[in-house]
Amino acid sequence: MGLGICNLSIVPVRISDSDKSEMITQLVYGDLFTIVEEKDKWTKIKCEFDNYEGWIDSKQYKRLDESDNIIIDNPIYSSDLVEFIENEKKELITISIGSNISNINLLNHKYDGKSMSGKQNRDSIVNTALLFLHSPYLWGGKTPFGIDCSGFTQMVYKINGYKLLRDAKDQATQGETLSFIEESQPGDLAFFHNKEDVIVHVGIILMDNHIIHASGKVRIDRLDQTGIYNNEKNTHTHYLRYIKKII
User: What CATH number is associated with residue 37?
Assistant: First the structure.
């Protein structure tokens, strides 16, 4: 039914067509999507980046024309925590890190802030992850103002030129499984499971047996063969299932 682009800072994507419905993910500025269905004031979309589906308010996006020169490959992302774009009325609109500014001309907007494009190295992944430190946890969130564990890992990798799926259990199907924690390097992903052996958490490995992950907030904790050890609680809070090498 056509294509759309997120023309606002952050847009909630819900599981059903209601303002009271659970937010399952978010669009950030510049995200592209396919329009799947339109119903009253709601639009069902399929995100271009990860094929995630959900409902957004029909007032919170711009429909694109088939004739538009849409850039999908080699996207350019804003790389500061918060930046500004200028609309056609010369008004400033805030955007968060990881906003796709490749198609800014289709929105008649201007941007002159910092940006990143292409595949980056492990050091860049770690440095990007650290920018999110202390961001509050938010189910379905993907920005420094609220983010969940898989939204955090997805956004960090996205900014650095790599595609991860949206949910932790799906991200766990990607990459190469490492046999031992000693084989891991900073930037690798660690996955954690519950009592039913379902993947429920993910984080990014740092130097010296530490991990950065979103739990209450984006935080740094110790990582060992058992899992994540929280020094504040003096206990393991998450139990390690395996480690994946993405790059």
Answer: 2.30.30.40
| Final residue of a structural domain among 49, 84, 117 | 117
Take residue 116 and report the two structure tokens written for it: 């990143």
Residue tagged 């980046």 (tokens): 49
The candidate with the shortest Cα–Cα distance to 227, out of 245, 210, 208, 246, is 210
pTM, full prediction: 0.96
Q: With 0-12 CB in 10 A as exposed, 13-18 as middle and 19+ as buried, what is 142?
A: buried
Which of the four pLDDT bands, split at 50, 70 and 90, describes residue 68? confident
Task: Name which of 103, 128, 119 is nearest 31 in CA terms.
Answer: 103
Q: What is the domain range of residue 92?
A: 3-117
Same domain, 15 and 61: yes
Q: Distance between CA 225 and CA 203 in Å, rounded?
A: 14
- For residues 153 and 40, give the distance between their C-alpha atoms in angstroms, rounded to a whole number: 34
Q: 112 and 129 share a domain?
A: no
Q: Cα(87)–Cα(109) distance, rounded to whole angstroms?
A: 5
